[in-house]
């Protein structure tokens, strides 16, 4: 139980002293509890600790027969609210708001933290991402205003990456409005930096947030316009691999938006253009964290078929993807694809294969399944449409996310 107290205290960003002050105990008392030197044997004390940590007492007791989205390996509501508050703060206005100035973090240190946040995102470690974001959303605006060890433009470029990560994670969790706000901030920050490709990739975050809000045509238009502008400026086939990757990512997100808008012709055209760009690139790469290349184009082609309701065609594309090439992609991208293929299997009525894809997604990046509303809905659909008892692995997964009564 002491380890659980320590885990949730750290997840809430509290030191032992801050936590001790909150519950009216000494720091030494908290330390002894967390190390197991002192036992927690009064339920009233356990509930007091749980309340201070904003969790249910059962989570400290280890009694979690059912898990809900947002629990166990996911961002919970407290962490989402912390990100919301971070987005609402304006530290650079401190001189007008009579707030004490915040010490500026050196830009090289911030760069290391942003890279760490990206790696955690690509592995699907969303609670780690959340804790990093809460701090970075506070530190990067201050660094842009008072740069140490770099320029304001350097800080702005880091800031746009922070907003992009925040937007993507929030969208996955179903927080579309917050995702749009973060993506819009990413565009503004990118325009204050010296790297135009950051503005290009930030565009995909805005478009994805618009898609989540049901603004499919607006998302399509934005992706296509910026893609065409980018390739015009960079010189087509003379572009660098990074430029091709960002251009290709814009085309792929445009294809997804077109599919959601019901425009299969435009979607096909954009996928064909992305294929040509991937062939020029000649390999799977991850410039600007795009994972762009021939394999990712095929993943998006399959995903487009899913959005068009053509599950059989999507599965046919999946069957042509090299398992080795798929395995080389980052964990988040692999899990996302297997979720798409789960949807395809549900569309064609193959619940057994749907279960396999869902379980595979959970193995690659558990948070992609346990934290996303779309995945929880898929589990529910498979359970209701499966004849007889569900497989052991699916049943275990369903129990852990609270999908079984």
What is the count of DSSP helices, taking H or I runs of 4+ residues? 23
> What is the overall silhouette?
flat
Distance between the termini: 27 Å
Helical fraction: over 70%
Query: Low-confidence stretches at least 5 residues in length (pLDDT < 50)?
Result: 64-72
Largest sheet: none
Strand coverage percent: under 5%
The Rg value, from CA coordinates, equals 23 Å
Number of beta-strand segments: 0
Mean pLDDT: 87
Structural class call reads mainly alpha
* Order of SSEs: HHHHHHHHHHHHHHHHHHHHHHH
Q: Briefly, what is this?
A:
The protein is mainly α. The chain has 23 helices and no strands.
Explain this structure to me?
It is a single chain. By secondary structure, the chain is mainly alpha-helical. 72% of the residues lie in helices and 0% in strands. The chain is built from 23 helices and no strands. The longest helix has 21 residues. The two termini are 27 Å apart. About 2% of the residues have low confidence. Pfam families: HTH_31. This is Helix-turn-helix transcriptional regulator.
Keywords:
flat; 405 residues; Lambda_DNA-bd_dom_sf; mainly alpha; Cro/C1-type_HTH; Helix-turn-helix transcriptional regulator
Chain-wise SSE layout:
Layout: H1 2-11, H2 16-23, H3 27-35, H4 43-52, H5 57-61, H6 77-88, H7 94-97, H8 107-122, H9 126-145, H10 152-172, H11 176-191, H12 196-212, H13 216-234, H14 241-260, H15 264-281, H16 294-307, H17 311-320, H18 323-327, H19 331-348, H20 351-364, H21 366-370, H22 373-385, H23 392-400
